[in-house]
Amino acid sequence: MLRAMTTAASGMHAQQTRIDSISNNLANVNTIGYKATRLEFQDLLYENLAPTGGVRAGGGSAPAAIEVGHGVRVMSTVRKANQGAPEQTSNPLDLMVDGDGFFQVRLPDGGLGYTRDGSFKIDRDGNVVTSAGYYLEPALSVPPEAESIGIASDGTVSAILSGSDTEEQILGTIELARFVNPAGLSHAGENLLVATPNSGEPEVGTGGSPGFGNITQGFVERSNVEVVTELVNMITAQRAYELNSRTIQTADDMMSTVNSIRR
To answer: What is the pTM of this model?
Structure first.
């Protein structure tokens, strides 16, 4: 009975972690560029009570082993990679990657962060930054005399300056990064991901080049959280938690019955 309790407790812990993941998905349903996560589980060590081929009563060999598992654990968290729905904002600095690729931003420690959140702003010095104030990489500056900003699908940024009639001036190019294993990226908060040894080194390119999506101006990518799916997952996780709890109660009742036996 003790094995049953510890096994069921591992199941309760796993379902609690699943609820935590679901709650984070639902909390970020309106977060620009957020990718929903799901958990992957793995069964634990098995105790071999009788090996395959062991001699059974009557002299025959056992065709199958008798094994009892010890529960479950959370193996990994996987981000869903499907594209979020586009939302039109008409803001010239709101950008969306239609396809594969991440925007690059420079972090305070000098490293690079990667994001699908393309809602950029201009700081007091004219630099293009994220909502948290991190500089876009490569750095991009908009002169104060710029009257309009245009961003092509390949990331080329141009502006019409006051007093220059209709002549456009190229300000720079927005580059994208992609990874062999984007699931290996680590969350850093503030809509940012950072590279890890599991993600591999970033491949940098421009929008529309082989393997990279196009950059669309005036749109942002909404989160890909499906509320109905998350609610269904929450119900199934809750039921699984209750069943594991009932297993512990049943094992406790059986132990109580054994302890109450009198000779």
So the answer is: 0.85
The total number of structural domains in the chain stands at 2
Closest C-alpha to 121, from 165, 80, 76, 89: 89
| Span 131-159, pLDDT tens digits | 999 999 999 999 988 888 999 999 999 99
**Residue 48 reports pLDDT greater than 90:** no
Reported as a single tens digit per residue, the pLDDT across 147-196 is 889 999 999 999 988 876 667 889 999 999 999 999 899 999 899 999 99
Do 75 and 101 reside in the same domain of the chain?
no
Question: 74 and 101: one domain?
Answer: no
The answer to whether residues 61 and 114 belong to one domain is no
Asked whether residue 98 falls in the same domain as residue 216, the answer is yes
234 in any annotated domain? no
Domain extent at residue 24 = 2-81+241-259
State whether 20 and 110 are in the same domain: no
d(CA 147, CA 133): 23
